[in-house]
């Protein structure tokens, strides 16, 4: 087993830009370095791994379902050990789901067996600073504890910030102890490589360390190919946990969508998070939505379409399913 592999946990609430930042880091990493990335999602469908960039010198693995702080037990450790053994990475990036409380995963990766295997660096938290002025976010323990436990806070989406949002971040950073190692602002996830080598500061505490003591349904990895339905598959999975609700779809490639209709549908949802990679008549498209703000771009072809909707209020999944079907391309 390798020793002292630099490892960085990149946290951030739903829609803060974690996957975008990881894509940027993969695009600027030293070409000959072998990196490994572990991505976790709250839902079981698994979309972020499709949104992540692919590199010949970076291996991306997904931990399906639940949240990384809960799966930071035997299953997560087995996956991490296998990743290290098979890829022999020179650096590891870990992206917990946006609603994860990071305390347990920090402890897992900095104690016991991993104390020698990994060199856990500064914990980085990506933050849409507008959320510091939103009671919907500040009332959630995971949101506040992601900030509390971070060594580095990177404020994202500067083009959308007003003076009051920057002041809220400044006021927070001034009062928190121990002081943050770095406070940065960036657009489009363009964080610097030097952040990955900053040391982790001991003594940071969570305001609500017990907030995430609960059980999830056992994670269930879906196969990489459509099931019995083949290319006609239309699979809807629902889930809930820690005050959040999710509806996810995996859809065979016989179904083709209208991207403009999808954009209208997603834009009107106002859910906390919408993300998907879907086959459209315009080609494969990636959709990213946060509380009504939606972006879309072309995406590489996938074996099937995937979509995940997350909200802090119950989702009428069957109604959403019917609306999604209305976005299918009409022959």
UniProtKB/TrEMBL annotation:
Annotated region described as Disordered, given as residue ranges: 200-225
InterPro entries: CobW/HypB/UreG_nucleotide-bd (IPR003495), P-loop_NTPase (IPR027417), Zinc-reg_GTPase_activator (IPR051316)
Domain CobW/HypB/UreG nucleotide-binding residue range list: 6-181
Cellular-component GO terms for this entry: cytoplasm
Protein name: CobW/HypB/UreG nucleotide-binding domain-containing protein
Organism per entry: Chlorobium luteolum (strain DSM 273 / BCRC 81028 / 2530)
């Amino acid at each position: 087993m390798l020793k002292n592999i630099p490892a960085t946990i990149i946290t951030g609430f739903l829609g803060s830009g974690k996957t975008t930042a990881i894509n940027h880091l993969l695009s600027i990493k030293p070409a000959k370095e072998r990196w490994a990335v572990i991505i976790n999602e709250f839902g079981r469908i698994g979309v972020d791994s499709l949104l992540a960039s692919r590199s010949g010198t970076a291996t991306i693995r997904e931990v399906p379902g639940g949240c990384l702080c809960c799966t930071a037990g035997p299953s997560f450790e087995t996956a991490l050990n296998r990743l290290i053994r098979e890829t022999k990475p020179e650096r590891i990036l870990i992206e917990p789901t946006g609603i994860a409380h990071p305390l347990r995963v920090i402890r897992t990766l900095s104690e016991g067996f991993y104390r020698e295997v990994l060199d856990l660096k500064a914990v980085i938290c990506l933050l849409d600073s507008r959320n510091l002025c939103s009671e919907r976010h500040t009332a959630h323990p995971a949101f506040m504890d992601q900030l509390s436990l971070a060594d580095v806070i990177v404020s994202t989406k500067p083009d959308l910030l007003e003076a009051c949002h920057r002041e809220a971040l400044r006021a927070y950073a001034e009062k928190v102890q121990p002081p943050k190692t770095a406070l940065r602002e960036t657009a489009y996830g363009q964080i610097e490589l030097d952040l990955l080598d900053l040391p982790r500061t001991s003594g940071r505490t969570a305001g609500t360390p017990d907030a995430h003591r609960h059980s999830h349904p056992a994670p269930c990895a879906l196969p990489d190919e459509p099931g019995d339905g083949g290319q006609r598959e239309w699979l809807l999975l629902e889930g809930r946990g820690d005050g959040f609700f999710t509806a996810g779809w995996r859809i065979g490639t016989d179904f083709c969508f209208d991207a403009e209709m999808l954009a209208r549908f997603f834009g009107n949802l106002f859910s906390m998070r919408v993300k998907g990679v879907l086959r459209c008549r315009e080609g494969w498209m990636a959709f990213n939505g946060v509380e009504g703000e939606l972006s879309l771009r072309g995406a590489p072809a996938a074996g099937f379409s995937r979509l995940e909707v997350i909200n802090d209020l119950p989702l009428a999944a069957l109604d959403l399913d019917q609306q999604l079907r209305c976005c299918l391309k009409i022959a």
